[in-house]
């Protein structure tokens, strides 16, 4: 799958690097298969936010998770979270959606800041049927709440504003969120 040149993942890597390499010793890295977070293991190494298959959307999503993770979580592989794989039952999927609401809201914010299409990820192709529209509405509500209450994490604001500059986009508002779903 080819990406438009304006939405090539290398641009995200460079924006992330400008924002976080010095202050957080962290880089955004294109990976192969599953995305993950790898804290630096030795002096002189960088923490790495690794996204999947060079996908632009994956880079935005993994950056969102990193922007939410607190200092203690950023010292652990994959932030110390256990991931419930594809094939989740209804209760597991509901739990997944609850946990994913905020990172996907930030991913949506980042998408708006670089004029890239956003689509929720339910990440459960072999499990219970998922109501994508209902989840999309919950993610939109989360993003709207974050924007209206100025409750965005500091690193998310830094990255989002840098994306707006890089991609010549205006800061999103509630109306812009509603229009895009």
Task: Give the tally of β-strands.
Answer: 3
Q: What's the tally of helices?
A: 6
User: What percent of residues adopt helix (DSSP H or I)?
Assistant: 40-55%
Strand content: 5-15%
Give the overall pLDDT as a whole number.
90
Largest sheet: 3 strands, mixed
Q: What number of structural domains do the residues give?
A: 2
List SSEs in N-to-C order: HEEEHHHHH
Overview of this structure, please?
By secondary structure, the chain is mainly alpha-helical. The protein folds into two domains: 5-80, no CATH class; 90-179, no CATH class. Helix content is 50%, strand content 7%. The chain contains six helices and three strands; from the N terminus they run αβββααααα. β2 and β3 form a beta hairpin. The longest helix is centred in the middle third of the chain and has 24 residues, at 90-113. The model has no long low-confidence stretch (mean pLDDT 90).
Task: Describe this protein with a few key phrases.
mainly alpha; 181 residues; 2 domains; three-stranded mixed sheet
Describe how the helices and strands are arranged.
Blueprint: H1 9-24, E1 26-30, E2 36-38, E3 47-51, H2 56-68, H3 90-113, H4 132-148, H5 154-167, H6 174-179
Parallel strand pairs: 1-3
Antiparallel strand pairs: 2-3
Helix pairs in contact: 1-2, 1-5, 2-3, 3-4, 3-5
Protein name: Elongation factor P hydroxylase
GO molecular function, one term: translation elongation factor activity
Keywords: Elongation factor, Protein biosynthesis
């Amino acid at each position: 799958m080819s990406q438009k040149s304006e939405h090539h993942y290398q641009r995200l890597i460079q924006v992330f690097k400008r924002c976080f390499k010095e202050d957080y010793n962290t880089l955004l890295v294109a990976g192969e298969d599953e995305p993950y977070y790898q804290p630096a293991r030795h002096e002189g190494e960088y923490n790495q936010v690794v996204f999947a298959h060079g996908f632009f959307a994956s880079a935005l999503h993994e950056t969102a998770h990193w922007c939410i993770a607190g200092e203690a979580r950023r010292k652990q592989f994959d932030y110390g979270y256990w991931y419930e794989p594809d094939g989740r039952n209804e209760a597991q999927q509901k739990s997944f959606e609850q946990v994913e609401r905020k990172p996907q809201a930030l991913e949506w914010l980042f998408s708006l800041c670089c004029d890239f299409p956003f689509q929720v990820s339910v990440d459960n192709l072999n499990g219970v049927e998922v109501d994508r529209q209902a989840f999309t509405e919950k993610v939109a509500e989360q993003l709207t709440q974050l924007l209206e209450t100025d409750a965005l994490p500091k690193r998310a604001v830094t990255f989002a504003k840098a994306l707006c500059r890089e991609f010549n986009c205006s800061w999103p508002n509630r109306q812009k969120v509603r229009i895009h779903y």
